[in-house]
Write a structure and sequence with these properties.
The protein contains 7 helices and no strands. It is mainly alpha-helical and 185 residues long. The radius of gyration is 17 Å and the shape is elongated.
Length: 185
């Protein structure tokens, strides 16, 4: 969006984790307010009208009607944790929260580099986005403790990684499927 910039492009002003977004990962979007390629967004268009706030929670009108139905469905990134992620960023402080995002991104990069059979990118992206960091660390430790994986095909390694991530999600009652937005009308 022309003229909309932010100093922090890893965490969007509405609470989405740009660092873990598949569009950001693929180089299609530089992050909320990151300049050329930034996706047009009704919430982002509001920031300049409110003194260029960096995060919606800094606005006296937050949460406003722009958020009505916002979390009802997912696009290419899960919206389900947005309010929880905002609460964590506020509670821990932005720097500590961003450090967690950086670690999650490193885990995602590792999964994509060593366990992606070409069909798991969205699944891995969603799992890393939704699962708590502690669970992701456990999955990666489990994967790292299996020397037999190095001799297996990428498809076999992918199945093991998916199985471990799914077990972690099932344990927490988290669905790793993107939710379709309800149809209007």
């Amino acid at each position: 969006m022309k003229g909309f910039t932010r100093t922090e492009t890893r965490f969007s002003l509405c609470g989405l984790n740009c660092t873990l977004c598949s569009m950001h990962l693929g180089g299609y979007c530089p992050g909320c307010g990151g300049g050329a390629g930034n996706q047009s967004c009704a919430i982002a268009k509001c920031s300049p009208a409110h003194d260029g706030i960096q995060f919606c929670w800094d606005c006296p009108e937050y949460p406003c009607p722009r958020y009505d139905g916002f979390d009802d469905g997912d696009s290419f990134v899960p919206h389900r944790n947005r309010q929880q992620d905002i609460a964590q960023a506020q509670a821990f402080g932005l720097d500590a929260y961003l450090a967690q995002l950086t670690e999650k991104r490193e885990i995602l990069d590792e999964l994509l580099a060593h366990y992606n059979d070409g069909r798991c990118k969205t699944y891995f992206n969603t799992a890393v986005y939704l699962l708590p960091l502690g669970d992701l660390r456990s999955v990666m430790a489990d994967l790292g403790s299996r020397p037999e994986l190095s001799g297996q095909t990428i498809k076999e390694r992918a199945l093991v990684a998916v199985g471990l991530l799914q077990a972690a999600a099932d344990h927490r009652g988290i669905s790793l499927r993107l939710n379709k937005k309800p149809k209007k009308g």
